[in-house]
Design brief:
By secondary structure, the protein is α+β, with helices and mostly antiparallel strands. The chain has ten helices and four strands, in the order E-H-E-H-E-E-H-H-H-H-H-H-H-H.
Length: about 240
């Protein structure tokens, strides 16, 4: 891979960017990174990202790939030691639940954009229901399908990270009575590649982002008076 320099175009908070970074770190791939302001997208970015979204991965300053799933699949295919199961059916099964994870991210967006308690509670229930479904599918004692880390685990790491921040504000009771999901969540929190996929500023930046949504959760944060130091720890 030394003859294929990778350049990742990113945003500091994007969970889809985190997927790509986790995989790059798991594969020990050196890459360059450029963060952009999605509210003021540069012209060069618009040329390489037809959908106007991050991440974008540029290879050899020639081809640019967009959509995190495509990027992760490419990285996995061109490097040794695949992070997918070898069995075709098991691989397809993992890919199905990766797509399910993208749906949870949409639900999380609905949660932090909810304008009132009723909307918020409805979105919270949608998320809890999805994790109840996942509880029935987990086959491993550490990760999704066993003791080995797979691409699907990289996808769910950024999902669980949101709840580390939500827990600073209130108990959503999402993971109550979900022992397999809770163990999986804890294992992913301890994974070095997942920890390193964001900066120490991430908790503070995410809280500021949530406050600026001017939504129900914004009021919860302001009322909780949650304050973080420069290392993202609650003061």
């Amino acid at each position: 891979m030394n003859n294929q320099p990778f350049h990742l175009v990113a945003h500091v908070l994007c969970p889809y960017v985190q997927r790509s970074i986790i995989l790059l770190k798991e594969k020990n791939i050196t890459y360059n990174r450029t963060d952009i302001d999605l509210g003021n997208k540069p012209e060069w970015f618009k040329r390489i990202s037809p959908l106007g979204k991050v991440p974008v991965l540029t290879i050899n300053e020639d081809r640019s790939l967009f959509e995190s799933t495509v990027i992760c699949e490419y990285i996995n295919e061109v490097t040794p030691n695949s992070l997918h199961p070898q069995d075709p059916l098991e691989k397809a099964y993992h890919r199905s639940w990766i797509e399910f994870g993208s749906g949870i991210l949409n639900n999380i967006s609905g949660l932090y954009n909810a304008q009132n308690k009723d909307e918020f509670d409805a979105k919270r229930l949608e998320i809890k229901t999805k994790f109840q479904q996942i509880e029935q599918e987990i086959m491993g004692s550490s990760y999704f399908s066993g003791e080995e880390f797979h691409l699907i685990d990289a996808v769910y790491g950024p999902i669980y990270r949101y709840f580390d921040i939500f827990d600073l504000i209130l108990d959503l009771e999402i993971f109550d009575a979900l022992p397999k999901v809770s163990v999986w969540k804890e294992a992913l929190q301890k994974r070095h590649s997942i920890q390193q996929a964001v900066s120490i500023e991430y908790p503070r930046l995410l809280l500021n982002f949530l406050i600026n949504r001017h939504s129900y959760i914004s009021d919860l944060i302001l009322n909780s008076q949650t304050i973080l130091n420069t290392e993202g720890e609650v003061i």
